[in-house]
Each structure stands twice: as structure tokens, then as C-alpha cells.
């Protein structure tokens, strides 16, 4: 294929085929309790609920969240937002991090926060 062939390449069919695909950027807090990590994945879209998004995994030893011998961490999608950087139907996916056994990892502070904030006595409070 020549350079001229590449310049004149018709990508319209490819573009039409991919209109139903979105990029979901999975985002989580790493082992520092301050830094954000992320990785992107192509999904069929549009997506309107976290329940439509599959869990994903990563090597927790590289983020300070798991020992080297058993380092798999599973990302559970919790909330989605329109991606302001990519636009279109692309989304940002806020995630909680769990062990493969389904236990929240120690840096998953949101796990206990959800338990506290969903308690009936807390729900009955009027913040201000």
C-alpha cells in the first residue's frame, strides 16, 4: 500500500460500524490514598448504568494495593459520568477495588463510607 493509498483510504464504513462503540475510562484511587489511576476499554454503547459495565482487573502490586504473589485486584464499576475530554457517548467509570474473593482492599475507603451514609439514622439527617 502506498502513501497515496493511505491518504485516500475510505474509513467511512469503519466509522459507521464503530458508532455503537464507546470508550469507558475506569478510574480508581491507588495505594497512596491520594493518586488516581485509570485505564480505558472499548465497549458497546451507549451505556446508561454501572450495571451495564463489566468488572475489570489490574495488577495491584504496581499501585501499592496488593502483594506481589497475589496481586490481582478487581474493579467494580460504581458510577458513570459523561467523559468531558472525549465527548460523544464516551464515559468515565468510577470504581471500587476488591480482591478476587470479593473483599474490599484496604485502600477501598468508599466501602465503609457507603455503609455509614446508607444507615437509616444517617439518611434521616438533614445536613443543612
- Global Rg: 19 Å
Number of domains: 1
- What is the CATH architecture assignment? Roll
- Report the CATH superfamily: Glutamine synthetase, N-terminal domain
- Which stretches are low in confidence, meaning pLDDT under 50 for 5 or more residues running? none
**Total strands:** 5
Please outline the major beta sheet: 5 strands, mixed
Strand order of the largest sheet: 2-1-5-4-3
InterPro entries: Gln_synt_N, Gln_synt_N_sf, Gln_synth_N_conserv_site, Glutamine_Synthetase
EC number: 6.3.1.2
Keywords: ATP-binding, Ligase, Nucleotide-binding
Pfam families: Gln-synt_N (PF03951)
Written overview of the protein:
This protein has 128 residues and is an alpha+beta fold. The chain has a single domain, classed as Roll (Ubiquitin-like (UB roll)). The chain is built from 4 helices and 5 strands. It has a 5-stranded mixed β-sheet with strand order 2-1-5-4-3, with no helix packed on it. It is extended.
Topology of helices and strands:
Elements (H helix, E strand, L loop, with lengths): L2 H5 L4 H6 L3 E9 L6 E9 L11 E4 L12 E11 L8 E8 L10 H9 L2 H4 L5
Parallel strand pairs: 1-5
Antiparallel strand pairs: 1-2, 3-4, 4-5
Organism: Solanum lycopersicum (Tomato)
EC number: 6.3.1.2
Protein name: glutamine synthetase
